[in-house]
User: Which sequence fits this backbone?
């Protein structure tokens, strides 16, 4: 299958496979619980050290604690993946509020953004492959989500009579997910990026229930990331390797954008449908779009006030 | 040996003594519990991916059972009100049996939510001071608070009553009454807050209906008392606790009214969605009719409606309500009916179709079902053990022997 026309692992098939596997393994585990736990090196106790288990919420760490944490994680990942991994915690820039705009008349539904995102952000590659971007296909004249199709699979895109709408985290100003989290493991940074502290998330998935845009994904199993595919340039709140049992999401490629680069999806788009910039800078392209195009946001009636805009350029 | 040690040793002995039926009952429960715990170990080792849950439907059987059992726990204590109003003899016993059921049900609730976590070992992140509890912003933090407070109250009251009874003393009602009174609004609050947990999300139109909390309370008054009617009959048959028929029939009558309200609220909900026929209708269609070929919930919800309606009429009619065969049949039908309606029937249509319109069918896996059965077994073990100790104390069979230094208790057991 070419990578252009594969959206995601078919969850139904994946679940059936797991079901059968689960039956066999469930019986085995029931018989040998003690042995199973003892062998659990890849189990839920994947902490490298007590320091990691008792690590504070990122927002409450002192600069020294942040430094020590980053160093510890770098060593852990470097050892785990057999190649040099850096973990940074670049802070927000002054007077920056990130915003995104997507030109629906340009998007051709090729899903290059989806795969550029997976590659950049170190998502699990299989069982299942985790996507931050869902590209929805609509028939012309429709914009009702229930009539959209995300598993479209034609020979060639774009298809006659259809248009495409990629949806990812909308980085809401009034984010329902941030409100929902019982332990403040997810929050909005000063530059407007909604982030997750993977080491603080308890995996209750309440944020996923709260999100109106399916902007969040959960690591149901150990993420499968082959070392050769690991992007070693990582951010603590972004694309560092995740563990099983935590929620993750689009961070506007925090590891890139806080250093003045574009998100991977913006760079990957072959038709220039994706625009990104500083909403506080009157000279920015995003501000030009807001001022010169009639833009809209998804589910405006929920008043989540996304910083992700759609327009027909 | 001091009084407390004697008491603890005595309860320990009581728990291990019993007839053949008792051993068979406990033995089979322990077996189911062990299988469930084994499956849980497998889940801990592998991840929640062994369940049927995935991103589109990110809560399943565990949270469904959690929701249902919060109702059982709430209703168990709300029994205090009718028991007091209708003067069902010694109210203390009814409070006691109800609160012990609440303890068992809340323990199960806490197990279900813990087993549903991706990182249960990070539970300390929820403890204020040690971790960060996002209170009062997150509704889940409210639920953590009210459930734990409720569990504490329902442990303190019975233990206090029983420990006093064990020493042959009346409890100090100046201390006890405020706690019992407090437990009533607390019972309402756990179920209200649990409803608000789902209620507060505009992203999920099926839950985002203000009728949800009242419906939760109404259906809790059906499922909880149904279980209690069955439990009361077993208790009075096997122990010396006396529970009057009058009390049992009154409970059945209360269930009838509660189910009447529940069915009325259901009709109100169905009317609103079907008549206005907006995009919000989709989850309800998925539940009652099936949507785009996904009709896995349809047989379940119609079974629930049939069971609830039949039970409603059985409890409404004095003749069938006061006949133990039809009464017990009604209890079983209602318990199953409310479980479907407030368990999977509430959780799954919240997710399907997803906010971006995906249709996705959830079905629990075998390990997930084994874990669920295991938690139910542990809950029943807890309730059985609590009753095993509480009842002999209440009827005066298990008492402190004051004139013997090492007097071990319960010799007449």
Assistant:
């Amino acid at each position: 299958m070419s990578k252009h026309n594969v959206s995601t692992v078919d969850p139904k098939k994946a679940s059936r496979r797991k079901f059968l596997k689960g039956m066999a393994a469930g019986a085995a585990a029931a018989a040998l619980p003690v042995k199973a736990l003892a062998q659990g090196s890849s189990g839920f106790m994947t902490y490298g050290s007590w320091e990691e288990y008792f690590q504070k919420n990122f927002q409450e760490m002192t600069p020294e604690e942040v430094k020590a944490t980053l160093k510890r994680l770098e060593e852990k990942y470097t050892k785990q993946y057999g190649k040099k991994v850096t973990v940074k915690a670049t802070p927000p820039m002054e007077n920056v509020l990130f915003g995104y705009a997507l030109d629906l008349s340009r998007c051709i539904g090729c899903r290059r953004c989806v795969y550029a995102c997976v590659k950049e952000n170190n998502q699990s590659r299989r069982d299942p492959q985790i996507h931050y971007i869902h590209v929805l296909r609509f028939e012309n004249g429709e914009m009702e989500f229930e009539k959209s199709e995300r598993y479209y699979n034609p020979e060639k895109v774009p298809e006659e009579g259809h248009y495409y709408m990629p949806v990812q985290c909308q980085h809401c100003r009034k984010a329902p997910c941030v409100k929902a989290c019982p332990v403040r493991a997810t929050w909005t940074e000063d530059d407007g990026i909604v982030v997750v502290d993977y080491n603080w998330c308890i995996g209750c998935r309440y944020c996923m229930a709260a999100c109106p845009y399916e902007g969040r994904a959960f690591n149901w199993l150990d993420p499968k990331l082959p070392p050769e595919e690991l992007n070693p340039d990582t951010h603590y709140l972004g694309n560092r390797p995740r563990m099983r049992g935590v929620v993750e999401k689009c961070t506007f490629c925090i590891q890139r954008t806080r250093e003045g680069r574009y998100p991977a999806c913006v760079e990957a788009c072959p038709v220039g449908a994706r625009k990104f910039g500083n909403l506080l800078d009157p000279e920015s392209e995003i501000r030009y779009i807001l001022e010169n195009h009639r833009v809209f946001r998804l589910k405006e009636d929920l008043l989540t006030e996304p910083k992700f805009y759609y327009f027909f350029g | 040996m001091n009084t407390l040690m004697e008491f603890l040793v005595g309860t320990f002995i009581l728990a291990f003594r019993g007839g053949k039926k008792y051993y068979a009952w406990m033995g089979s429960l322990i077996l189911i519990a062990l299988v469930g715990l084994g499956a849980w170990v497998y889940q801990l080792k592998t991840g929640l991916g062994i369940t049927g849950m995935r991103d589109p439907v990110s809560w399943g059987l565990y949270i469904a059972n959690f929701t249902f059992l919060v109702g059982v726990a709430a209703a168990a204590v709300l029994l205090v009100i009718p028991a007091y109003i209708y003067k069902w003899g010694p109210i203390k016993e009814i409070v006691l049996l109800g609160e012990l059921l609440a303890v068992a049900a809340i323990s199960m609730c806490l197990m279900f939510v813990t087993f549903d976590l991706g990182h249960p070992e990070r539970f300390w992140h929820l403890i204020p001071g040690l971790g960060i509890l996002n209170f009062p912003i997150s509704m889940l933090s409210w639920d953590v608070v009210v459930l734990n407070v409720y569990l504490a109250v329902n442990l303190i009251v019975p233990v206090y009553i029983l420990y006093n009874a064990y020493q042959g003393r009346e409890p100090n009602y100046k201390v006890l009454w405020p706690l019992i009174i407090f437990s009533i609004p607390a019972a309402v609050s756990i179920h209200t807050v649990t409803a608000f947990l789902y209620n507060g999300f505009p992203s999920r139109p099926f839950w985002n209906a203000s009728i949800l909390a009242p419906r939760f309370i109404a259906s809790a008054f059906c499922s909880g008392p149904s279980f209690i009617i069955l439990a009361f009959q077993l208790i009075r048959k096997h122990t010396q606790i006396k529970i009057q028929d009058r009390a049992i029939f009154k409970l059945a009558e209360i269930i009838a009214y509660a189910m009447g309200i529940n069915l009325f609220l259901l009709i109100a909900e169905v009317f609103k969605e079907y008549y206005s026929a907006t995009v919000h209708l989709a989850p309800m269609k998925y539940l009652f009719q099936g949507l785009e070929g996904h009709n896995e919930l349809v047989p379940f919800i119609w079974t629930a409606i049939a069971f609830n309606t039949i039970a409603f009429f059985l409890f409404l009619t004095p003749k069938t309500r006061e006949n133990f065969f039809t009464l017990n049949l009604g209890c079983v039908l209602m318990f199953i009916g409310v479980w479907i309606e407030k368990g999977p029937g509430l959780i799954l249509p919240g997710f399907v179709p997803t906010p971006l319109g995906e249709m996705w069918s959830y079905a629990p896996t075998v390990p997930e079902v084994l874990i669920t059965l295991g938690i139910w077994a542990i809950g029943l073990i807890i309730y059985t053990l609590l009753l095993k100790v509480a009842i002999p104390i209440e009827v005066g069979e298990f008492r402190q022997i004051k004139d013997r230094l090492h007097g071990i208790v319960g010799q007449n057991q």
